[in-house]
Amino acid sequence: MHIDRYERWWIYLAAGLLGVFGIALAFSSAVLGIRLPGIEEQFLPTAAAGDYDVEQGWVRELAPGRYEVNMRARVWSFEPNEIRVPVGSTVTFYVHSDDVIHGMKIQNTTVSMMVLPGEVARATYTFTEPGEYLFMCHEYCGAGHHFMSGRVIVEAL
Ligand code: CUA
Description:
Elements: H1 5-30, E1 42-43, E2 59-63, E3 66-74, E4 77-79, E5 82-86, E6 90-97, E7 102-106, E8 112-115, E9 120-126, E10 131-136, E11 149-155
Parallel strand pairs: 3-6, 5-11
Antiparallel strand pairs: 1-9, 2-3, 3-4, 6-9, 7-8, 7-10, 10-11
């Protein structure tokens, strides 16, 4: 079959780009630990009865340097919207929604979740650098969507 020279170049270019994208994907998931929010990070509240307890407070210290945050998302705020942990802490976030679909993304971390009504989204991250980490809702949820944010304050020891 005859393929025109320019056509062949385009085929090579397209195949090359696919290869580059494939390498970028493999690098970001294997080396940088970046993942798309997946179904394995969500589970029904009943299955998490032992983990999820609003009455015990939003932020719980399980052990030195080990925290658990039970977070509520609703139009248009997070509770809590300010979390303080010492640097080096490993924090597991459990986020549920009281109303519609929200998102929860923490700036400069690998935490990015969809928060679906009826499920609890879960993500764990170790904060190795002190500073303020903005988190925000990244699923459009109505008129006040862009107000829906908070911050994790990682304090130097
Ligand atoms: Cu909640 Cu957008």
